[in-house]
Amino acid sequence: MKKIAVSGYKSYELGIFQENDIKVGFIKSALKKRLLQLIEEGLEWVLLSGQLGVELWAAQSVQELQADGWNIQLGVIPPFENQESRWSDEMKMIYEEVCAVADFCQPLYKGEYKGPYQFKARDKWLIDKTDGCLLLLDEENPASVRFFHEEAKKTRSRKNYEIMLITPFDLDEIVQEIQMNDPDFWT
Fold this sequence. Notes:
Layout: E1 3-7, H1 22-40, E2 45-48, H2 54-67, E3 73-76, H3 89-101, E4 104-105, H4 117-128, E5 132-136, H5 145-158, E6 162-166, H6 168-180
Parallel strand pairs: 1-2, 1-5, 2-3, 3-4, 5-6
Helix pairs in contact: 1-2, 1-6, 2-3, 4-5
């Protein structure tokens, strides 16, 4: 796979309301671990829409990998201009930083939000332009990521499209790994 889309829950769907929440670090660690495996197998591009939560954390994870010398490109394709207009100032700043240093950043539609069809078009576009996707998803509680997942499953039935999941079990493993490697955990 040369290009993947990344998506998942919005931060509030995970009960995360501050960027310094410890859960953000665990999620970013899980994303980086999976992305590193894919980069070593030839991944060149990560595409996402930059929505709050998993997508922004994935973008930050890609940028951290780039800073560590990994050869990976980031494309941010929001569904429309100013998707961040109703976000908190902190989240707007994070989004703007991500877009400023992304290798490619351009909205799918010119202009502001017009309707839910823009989100459907975003999902289809991201899936059409990639070889697979990486989703943070608990299939028992899919929340809004279910729409992307359903579209990806439709595509998988028509062509060879790989759907990779980071599950709650994967997150538990990451938490255990981090705790095991923390000398303060044992004291």
